[in-house]
Amino acid sequence: MKKTLLAVTAALMVITAAPAQAIVGGKATEKPVSWMANLQGTDGSHHCGATLVAPQWVLTAAHCILDFNTGKPVDPAGLQVRVGSLNRSAGGTLAKVSQVRPHPSAHLAPGPPGSPPSFDGTDLALLKLDRPVWTPPALLGGQTPAPGTPVRLLGWGWDDTGFPEQLQELTLPLTEARGDILDFVTDNGTRVGAGDSGGPAVVATKSGPRLVGVTHAGGRTATGGDSSTYTDATRYRVWIWTTIASWK
Could you tell me the CA-to-CA distances from 52 to 4, 134, 214 in Å, in that order? Predict the structure, then answer.
């Protein structure tokens, strides 16, 4: 499925786009989230959101770990992940990334002359950590949520002063599920923004929260509304678990 350049701006706005708001219209998260992860450089710089899905694995967006110059996965030696802290710079557990595994269909397609490449394929990637993180991981949802379902979106995207230290969140009803995309459209200015890429979308169930999506992009619609798009993680349960089980 063809993706837009918005996916790129959601992760790397400092390179490709003007600043946008973080979880626009949201609020600071107050209660601990054991499985929330911040993907960052080894210098602590924010890259993307991520979700702990197994003790030694986090799930994020593929465009967060593809090199724009080569189109290949970045060197994992330059990445680390902070898990289980609302503050992206302190607390929780800090682990280095040892391996990166984008979905097989994920790649960067050449853009028009003078323009950066655009993302194409399934926007998911699994990152193996250099050691297990013993905090409760997120549980994957069993099916695509129905339109109208309230979904909790989380991230550390850009605000007026930079990437916030405190995790932000927003709950929106799902507008539409089309193919492997979950689309949230609003007319009140609420959406995900630059730097929120890779973060989770979760639904509440009687047995606890379930991960249903991974942030792909945020931006404006053709009609002037606000859009937040997520890759439907429930459609890739088999790939997620077979990758974790097979990669040593």
Answer: 26, 10, 12
**CA separation for the pair 244, 77 (Å, rounded):** 20
Read off the pTM. Answer: 0.90
CA gap 226, 220 in Å, rounded: 5
Largest distance between two CA atoms of the chain: 51
CATH T-level assignment (fold) for domain 6-18+34-137+237-246: Thrombin, subunit H (2.40.10)
What is the separation of C-alpha 140 from the centre of its chain, rounded to a whole number of angstroms? Answer: 14
CA pair distance 75, 127, nearest whole angstrom: 12
Give the number of other CB atoms < 10 A from CB of residue 87. Answer: 14
Give me the sign of the Cα torsion angle 59, 60, 65, 66: positive
Dump pLDDT digits (tens) for 54-71.
999 999 999 999 998 888
Query: CATH number of 140-234: 3.30.450.40, 1.10.730.10, 1.10.10.60, 2.40.10.10?
Result: 2.40.10.10
Span 111-154, pLDDT tens digits: 788 777 888 999 999 999 999 999 999 999 999 999 999 999 99
Cα–Cα distance, 1 to 105 (Å, whole number): 9
